[in-house]
Amino acid sequence: MIYPWLKTQWQLFLQQKIQTRVPHAILLKGVEGLGKRSFADQMAASLLCENNMTGEACGHCHSCQLFLAGSHPDHIVIEPEEAGKQIKIEQIRRLKDKQELTPTVSKWKTVIISPADSMNINANNSLLKLLEEPQQNTLLILIVVRPALLPITIVSRCQKLTLSAPEPAVTISWLQQQSSFLESEIVPLLPLANGAPLKMMSMLEQGVATIIEQVDRDFNLLLAGDVNPVSLAKDWQQYDVLMVFNHLQNLIQRRIVKDQNESNRVKTKYYWHIYDCIIAAIKLISSSSNINKVLLIEQFMVSVMNTDADYKTANYS
Ligand SMILES: [Zn+2]
After folding, report:
1. How close is the Cα of 161 to the center of ligand 1, in Å?
2. Ligand 1 centroid distance, CA of 65 (Å)
3. CB atoms within 10 A of CB 96
4. What's the confidence (pLDDT) of residue 103?
5. Which residues contact 153 (CB under 8 A, 6 or more apart)?
6. Going edge to edge, which strands form the sheet with 109-113?
7. What separation in Å is there between the alpha carbon of 68 and the centre of ligand 1?
8. Where are the domains of the chain?
9. Cβ(112)–Cβ(40) below 8 Å
10. What's the CA-to-centroid distance between 169 and ligand 1, angstroms?
C-alpha cells in the first residue's frame, strides 16, 4: 500500500514504468519518517512483479511471493552490517558481481542501498563505477536523509526523487485513523518530527506526548523561578535531551512571535535570552556524544534563572 502523502510521486513513477522510462538510478530523499524504504520496496516489487505491468505489485505471483519472503534472487538490499555503521566496499563489490548476471525470475534487477549516505569513501568509488556502466532493466535506489554527504559524482548520475511531508491536516487525520491519539497530543509533536507521519507515530507510541506535557509544566515553573534545578535535571536526563531542547526552541519561537505581535519589547528581549540558552545547549549536545547530560541541563536551568533575575531587575529599575 502506498501512503496517502506519497500518491503523487507514486503516479510519477508509474508513468515512467508504463512509458519504459524508468531511470537506472534513483536518489530517494526526504526527512526521516516519510516511508522512503516502503516506497523503494514498492517500486522494486512493482518492477519485479510478473502480473501487474501498470500499477502496484500484485502480491500473489511467484516473484511477489519471493519478494515478500525477502528471498527474491533479482533483488538486493545493501545496508550497514550493524545499525549506525558504514556500508563497506566489500558489500558494493558483491553487488557488482551479482549485477553482471542476468535476472533469474523477473525481467528486472533491483537494488536498494539504505542509507546510501552511510557508504564509506571506497564504497562510494566502487558504486560510482557501477553507475558509470548502467545496465538494461536494472534499477538502483539510493535512500538518503542527508544527500549532502554523498559525492556529487554519484548524485549527478541519479534521478532525484524527493518525498515531502504532507500538510499538518493530512498527518493529523492519518494518525487519527491509525490510532486513538488525540489532536491535542499530536499537534505539539509536528515540528519535532518535521511533520513526518511515521516518525510522529513512533514518537506517540513511545509516549513522547506525555514527556512533552511534563517538560512544558517544568519549563513554566523554571521561568517562574519556582524549581530546584538539581532535582529537575535528574528528571530531564531520562529523556532524549536533544528532542527536549528542540521542543523548547519551538516553544520559545512561538512565544517570541506572539509577544512581537503584542509589541511587548521587554518580554520579547527576555525570550531571546532564553532562546540563546537553548541554542547553546543544542550546540553542546550536537557536538559531542559523550556529554554529561545532568550537568548540561543544570547549567541551562541556572542560566535561565539568571536571565530571569536580570530581566526582573531591568523591569523594576
Ligand atoms: Zn506479482
Report:
1. 24
2. 7
3. 13
4. 83
5. 128
6. 75-78, 109-113, 138-144, 25-29, 159-162
7. 10
8. 4-162, 207-316
9. yes
10. 34
User: How far does the centroid of ligand 1 lie from the alpha carbon of residue 66, in Å?
Assistant: 10
Sequence length of the chain is 317
Strands (E) in the chain, as ranges, are 25-29, 75-78, 109-113, 138-144, 159-162
C-alpha cell at 193: 518530527
- Give bridge partners of residue 283 from the DSSP assignment: none
pLDDT in tens, 163-174: 999 999 999 999
- Provide CB contacts within 8 A for 239, sequence distance 6+: 211, 215
Chain segment 94-117, per-residue pLDDT in tens: 888 877 778 888 999 999 999 999
Neighbours of ion ligand 1 (CB under 5 A): 49, 51, 57-58, 61, 64
Output the CA 46–ligand 1 centroid distance in Å.
7
Q: Which residue has the cell 554527504?
A: 149
Task: Please give the backbone phi and psi of residue 60, each rounded to the nearest 5 degrees, phi first.
Answer: -120, -30
CATH class of 4-162: alpha beta
* Residue 69 Cα to ligand 1 middle (Å): 13
Is 0.85 topped by the overall pTM? no
